[in-house]
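pasting input
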Amino acid sequence: MAERIEYFYWPGIQGRGEFVRLGLEDAGADFVDVVRSRKRGLDEMILIAAGEAEGALPFAPPFVRVGGVVVSQTANVLQFLGPGLGLAPRAMPLRAELNQIQLTLCDFVDEIHDTHHPIAGGLYYDDQKGPAKRRSRDFVAERMPKYLTWLEHVLQRNRSSGGKWLVGRDCSYADLSLFQIVAGLRYAFPHAMAEVEADLPLVVAVHDRVRERPRIAAYLRSKRRIPFNEMGVFRHYPELDAKARRRRRV
Amino acid sequence: MAERIEYFYWPGIQGRGEFVRLGLEDAGADFVDVVRSRKRGLDEMILIAAGEAEGALPFAPPFVRVGGVVVSQTANVLQFLGPGLGLAPRAMPLRAELNQIQLTLCDFVDEIHDTHHPIAGGLYYDDQKGPAKRRSRDFVAERMPKYLTWLEHVLQRNRSSGGKWLVGRDCSYADLSLFQIVAGLRYAFPHAMAEVEADLPLVVAVHDRVRERPRIAAYLRSKRRIPFNEMGVFRHYPELDAKARRRRRV
């Protein structure tokens, strides 16, 4: 990947862009965060999203541009960049498995988003607080454990064939996304997460190993990492952090 | 693609599986609908989803198995099968664009699903009818026109470079998905769709051309095509089909 990567995402939030950024940071890639580093970067992003530039038309950020090619949709960007970043396995069946995991993580993120915006992304949280409480109650009791348990099973299966990451032998972009989701859920739903983590030793171990990777650790300490806040995907509204239904181990 | 494709999805609904099936049908592929044609097909599907079989662990159907490799997540299945089915362009940038469009269509389908299930997929519609009405009002006024207009723009851009499909020169699996979404929206939101279609000539034209492709036309007439119903993604609940906000052309 000789060409410089231009990365486009909203400033001020981690959002879905963070899944792409973690890959770029972990690989030490030569990239530019256009919106945060160029004077008219936000205008540039909006022009591309409005169809005023060459290349594929993104539906929404995040997207990247590499050598004139515009690539959008989080999982698609990661699939496009992954091999060049050293964050994807070589064998085709493993790549299909990696993509399937990443798409499932993206679905998980969509459901996390909809806990605070179950009615409409364009309305304020306060205007949908009632439904948000109901959706969050179900999310914490059913969906969050379902996704996390599935990840634990994927890790168990891969461990039984000698791997300590989600796919194959090495850390992939899906492991970085797992890290981000665990970190975000701990921020958004601290009580609920505290209750389920004991059943997720492998998930927590991947989170911890990703956090300690040298370039990720340096990135997390830097100003480039925007703190979690109540404009992003992972929002801490204490009223939504209902305790998970207590599940006893059999 | 010499090996026979095993296709796994719930019986009785079109659901997300239909996007995969349309590709298989259009290509005249050698595939078996395991659940609907084998005596213990449903058990087979459930065993794979429960992790009792070899291969990648799907989070949910639809998935396919080809030569021992299990591939799940609708867009991932299509990406995996697409080239062998003759439903994907060859050039890598066009493949990335195709995948980005397909992923956006999948997001659209998720939002369509959540119009009738804004609180929880595990609860009955009747238990979330109030929030469903609110979500549908926003969907019909904002989200549905946003996605459809974006598709119209993608088609306009491709037409200006000589194409009459979403990507490149030939029909791809994303065009088949567009057909399915237009057909589904006409079923679920007939009033709202009637109001917006006049502004979407290229989208409607792709829908019509797909419907007339010989193998698709034969499939739609066959018993293999399950009719739309109120258990799938596209459900006709008249109370959700609020008229779209009237938008005048400027």
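fyi Strands of chain A lie at 5-8, 31-33, 63-66, 69-72.
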